[in-house]
Write a structure and sequence with these properties.
The chain is an alpha/beta fold. It has 2 domains: 36-135 and 282-302, no CATH class; 164-274, no CATH class. The protein has 11 helices and 5 strands. The chain has helices at residues 2-26, 46-50, 54-75, 109-112, 123-134, 146-161, 181-194, 199-209, 215-221, 225-242, 254-267; strands spanning 38-43, 86-92, 98-100, 104-108, 298-301. The chain has a 5-stranded mixed beta sheet with strand order 3-4-2-1-5. The longest helix has 25 residues, at 2-26. The N and C termini lie far apart (73 Å).
């Protein structure tokens, strides 16, 4: 009887093991990153075409997009979401320094032309490219606040594209977590470095699904956003103020840099994936700060 029971248990175990292996075999392999399908350069008017130094600046901007688009796509991957593939890079003679829409990354040559101060500011393109990949939609639900959207974009700009660059000084007596851009980006770096390495990814997913709630700060750190900001001020901003230093570079956050390296090491093992067709309704984001101008001949960068 004991031998029969032992045989039955062995059979059950083998069946269970085979079932587990079959389930593992059925798991879908991890997808690789998507690359832009086409990058098109558009000069808005004759003034842009005549400006010296712009073609060279645009060539570097195209390289920034090619290198960082698939990395951002993978870092912010959420199930079923496919950012738009074709990108229009639009040079305007005036208007905002940088802006984006569901199809376009635009900028003013008044900032990047020789002698204007932004001749090497390709980080602006890296920032706007994050917005392009975020691709937050309207509709029902609670959208992510604008200050958080901008904070995520500068977070990625300063950890992936220019981690050695020091961001501007932040006055701890006047600043607040919702000041957006570099102020918020530094705050997010602290949260990722200290509490939750996936915090920004979770925040981005809330933006895409329109499920944002301030409780994400407490879930990630055990503290509400106001108390978390006060802690950041005491531990990071005030010591920097005493040393008369800027808020970062991002490299000062050692855990953050470790998480970045882990991601990039894993990213390097992945193969690019063919881009599927976007789901209906994707790619309908709002254009922000769009300049006006007649469309000029295009240069395609394939």
């Amino acid at each position: 009887m004991k031998h029969v029971l032992s045989f039955c248990l062995t059979v059950v175990f083998l069946l269970s093991a085979n079932t587990l292996r079959a389930q593992e075999d059925e798991k879908k392999p991890e997808r690789g990153p998507y690359y832009p399908t086409r990058i098109t350069i558009v000069y808005s008017d004759d003034k842009v075409i005549a400006e010296k130094g712009i073609p060279e600046w645009l060539a570097m901007a195209v390289n920034v997009i090619r290198e960082n688009y698939p990395k951002y796509d993978k870092y912010f991957e959420t199930e079923g979401h496919i950012p738009a593939g074709a990108i229009e890079l639009r040079a305007e003679s005036s208007g905002p320094i940088g802006w984006n829409s569901s199809t376009t990354i635009g900028f003013s040559i008044e900032w990047i032309k020789p002698g204007a101060g932004g001749e090497k500011d390709w980080g602006m393109i890296a920032h706007e490219l994050v917005h392009f990949v975020q691709n937050y939609q309207g509709g029902e639900g609670t959208g992510i606040p604008g200050w958080a959207t901008e904070g995520i974009a500068d977070f990625c700009r300063h950890i992936f594209f220019e981690p050695e660059k020091e961001m501007r000084f932040v006055n701890p007596d006047r600043a607040n977590y919702d000041n957006a851009y570099q102020v918020t980006a530094g705050f997010f770096m602290y949260i990722v470095d200290t509490y939750d390495k996936d915090f920004v990814k979770k925040l981005n997913e809330m933006g895409r699904k329109r499920t944002y709630t301030p409780e994400i700060f407490e879930k990630s750190s055990g503290k509400n956003v106001e108390d978390l900001w006060k802690e950041y001020v005491e531990k990071v901003l005030k010591p920097l103020q005493a040393d008369r230093k800027g808020i970062v570079p991002a490299t000062r956050f050692t855990n953050l840099m470790k998480y970045k390296k882990e991601f990039e090491d894993h990213y390097a093992t992945l193969k690019p994936e063919p881009r599927p067709q976007p789901q209906q309704g994707q790619g309908q984001g709002q254009r922000q700060g769009q300049g006006q101008g007649r469309q000029r001949p295009q240069q395609e960068q394939n």
